[in-house]
Amino acid sequence: MSTTDTPETHPEPDGPRVDRRRFLAGVGLAGAGLAVGGAAGAGIGYAAASGGTDTDAEVEPFYGEHQAGIITRQQNSLVFAAFDLKDSATVPSVQTMLARWAAAASLLTQGKPVGPVESRPMTPPADTGEAFDLGAHRLTVTVGFGPTFFDDRLGLQDKRPAALQPLGQLATDTTIDPTISGGDVCVQACSEDPQVAFHAIRNLARIGRNVVTLRWLQEGFGRASATSTSQVTPRNLFGFKDGTANIKAEEPAVAGEWVWVGDETDQDWMKGGSYLVTRKIRMHIEAWDSDDITDQERIFGRVKESGAPLSGGDEFATLDFTAKTDGQPAIHPFSHVRLAHPDNNGGAQILRRGYNYTDGIDTRTGTLAAGLFFMAYQKNAHEQFVRIQNNLAQDAMNEYVSPISSSLWAIGPGLSKIGDWYGKTMLGNTP
Amino acid sequence: MSTTDTPETHPEPDGPRVDRRRFLAGVGLAGAGLAVGGAAGAGIGYAAASGGTDTDAEVEPFYGEHQAGIITRQQNSLVFAAFDLKDSATVPSVQTMLARWAAAASLLTQGKPVGPVESRPMTPPADTGEAFDLGAHRLTVTVGFGPTFFDDRLGLQDKRPAALQPLGQLATDTTIDPTISGGDVCVQACSEDPQVAFHAIRNLARIGRNVVTLRWLQEGFGRASATSTSQVTPRNLFGFKDGTANIKAEEPAVAGEWVWVGDETDQDWMKGGSYLVTRKIRMHIEAWDSDDITDQERIFGRVKESGAPLSGGDEFATLDFTAKTDGQPAIHPFSHVRLAHPDNNGGAQILRRGYNYTDGIDTRTGTLAAGLFFMAYQKNAHEQFVRIQNNLAQDAMNEYVSPISSSLWAIGPGLSKIGDWYGKTMLGNTP
Q1: What is the pLDDT of residues A267-316, one digit of tens each?
Q2: CA neighbor of B375 nearest in space, from B356, B391, B362
Q3: Residues in domain Dyp-type peroxidase N-terminal (chains A, B) (predicted)?
Q4: Closest partner residue to A132 among B4, B296, B305, by Cβ?
Q5: Whether the bond into B431 is cis, omega within 30 of 0
């Protein structure tokens, strides 16, 4: 059986020292070629044959000031992939991959295949096809870079933002598995349909297969945050509403203050971008499930059913840390909501965008290997996430959770138009 | 922190030699208690607070001739759990667990919690809560028994159906992992929302925690079958429409002939039930993705985009095994559709109900650990699935797949009314 590649549909630049003008022209051509393939070669967009839910045909805008998938109303499914550069990777090959990814993502997020399936009998289909009858389902593709991307392999040390200093080992981080942490490049795919998100990651991995290898991959379900006031606050696997006070898409001023990188950055290419912290947090579900409701609520600081703070009111009531119950603080000093609250962290807020996960069972114990794939976007993770997380070292909830993965990513700004690509403002002038 | 259990909400029968009449009364009480807890104690059904998709409030009937989740229009998400009996398990403790599972499933499938959350301050919540704001999303819970359930531990050897003979090692089964195969009891939870399915399995595992332990657990997404003519034929991770000729809910005569156990059984308790084969089939995606479209289509016997047979017509056209292309059979002798077709298997058909899966990456190779969690229901797996699978030993697709899990389950008939429970017609008179 043939293992022929498809150079025709994935044109390479001429070589590692490709002239910038010619390289960009080539990228444009690649993007256009893919677009033509998607629209004409494959004949139909994915949405055409759908007979499913209302979200099938919903499309999130791809071009814009910021990358989609950050403040975007959070979708129900996540597939997150971390990649390592191959030893053979060069700046031109990385540029080409990122340009192809942009062209592919611009199609995928419209519910289109990345290229034709049937047009060339003796070559593999350009698109793997498993999302062929599905719509976009609000797919977003968000691309970023880990600290190691800027080490001496590609010679990009000068492009590394100061804020991309690795998180290091925080006080709670005694159980981190380095094999599922870090990586050179990341792709976050979110959609209302898990197959659409999986398809996006698979096809980007395929497009990048000569440049990067998969380092780890995480699926998530049951969004564990709300990023829009139009969304009900969801529940984590402890059964509590989580992130009631999250930053919302309807609060652009708050997002401007806490989410988007601005003039304070030492790297212009990060303006309009954000820093993403990903943490895989194993929850000890069976232990939690044997704890009484009063203790569970004391740990969270909220009522389980309603989500209301223990100081009173409804879910969205302001937390009153001075309120007393039977002479004791109504919201315990070591409760999660209190330690995480901006008032106790110099005002710091983060945009949470996590997902619940399960990896099946922990075969050593027969318990559910499940928890939260925490994701948070912010202007500066060291001043926001790290500050809050250090405060959470006292969190009573720590008895029931173990962080097993921890990573920091620089998520560049949005792509402005066709021909733009991920990292272009960083890499576009690099020979 | 308390680790107190909740005996009040999970009443035990009096002991292992419990009188049958009292036991059944106790089960009825337990069921009623849970129902009251669900309706009154927790105050609201899950669906009440939902602001989500159209499927939120959709409920599949729980009581009926057959268990739901078999011929039921296939949902988008699966969580499948295999359990082993604890050494301490006895027939009465298993009876009680199965009765509680029935009571819980009757509530969960209506979008209700299995019990109250806030009513008893010093006890754990009866329901774990993570589906609290979600609807039923067409949840079905389907319970069955593996061959080992009937070994000498519980003394139920006489209740084992002849058709529950283990599958054994088939010709293609060189890579089966026994730790993710088999088990004494299984629960299949299907829903349009993965969090609802996860919640069901978690709460049943919790209810059964003194009787069974989790052996393995499998999540699935992107249903890889259609079980209703109202559904578009979905695609597996090879990008092909799969199961075009599947048995459909709208064909009760076909289901009667091939799916439901009838008078031929040696065990009356299985009448109206079915036998479920579960197979986890790792797909070597990267190898497949490098194969050319012509070869992919030759292996399947169908056109990738349309799903039409290579002998012509549309997706649902009858396969013509005599048709020729350039003097060769249009549908190759070793193609999947030909080898699996009823005409080449003595007419045998099966009801496919599989799901796509991914377990992240295979860390040994950096490739995607993804594939198909194959599930098929039938009257007799040895005469149907095994016959077809033996024919598929010649399947050209075998180069691209490795079965890693293989199990056979006896799925009893439906529950007829409140007070009925899983396996009651088998275990109700025991001891």
Answers
A1: 999 999 999 999 999 999 999 999 999 999 999 999 999 999 999 999 99
A2: B356
A3: 67-221
A4: B305
A5: yes
Tell if the CB–CB gap between A118 and B303 is shorter than 8 Å: yes
How far is residue B173 from each of residues A69, B279, B289, measured CA to CA in Å?
42, 10, 24
Side chain identity at A393, as an amino acid letter? A
Provide the number of structural domains found in chain B: 1
Instruction: Tell which B residues from 92 to 151 touch A, by Cβ distance under 8 Å.
Output: 117-118, 120-125, 127-133
Which residue, among A85, A92, A98, A86, has the nearest Cα to A141 in the 3D structure? A98
The chain B residue lying nearest A360, using CA atoms, is B217
Q: How far apart are CA A319 and CA B375, in angstroms?
A: 49
- B353: burial class by Cβ within 10 Å (0-12, 13-18, 19+)? buried
Q: Which residue has the tokens 């939120």?
A: B56
Q: Is A356 close to B130, i.e. CB distance below 8 A?
A: yes
Pick among B56, B79, B114, B132 to test the A interface (most A CBs inside 10 A) = B132
**CA–CA–CA angle B52, B53, B56 (5° rounding):** 85
Q: Are B72 and B95 in contact (CB under 8 A)?
A: no
Query: Which of B285, B295, B358 faces A1 most closely, judged by CB atoms?
Result: B295
A32-46, A208-222, A391-405, B413-427: least confident range: A32-46
Which regions of chain B are under pLDDT 70?
Answer: 1-55, 429-431
- Give the tens place of pLDDT for each residue, A92-134: 999 999 999 999 999 999 999 999 988 888 999 999 999 998 9
Structure token digits, residue A133? 């009858």
Give the residue numbers spanning the domain of A189.
Answer: 1-431
d(CA B396, CA B301): 10
Cα distance between residue B399 and residue B388, in whole Å: 18
CA distance A376 to chain B (A): 21
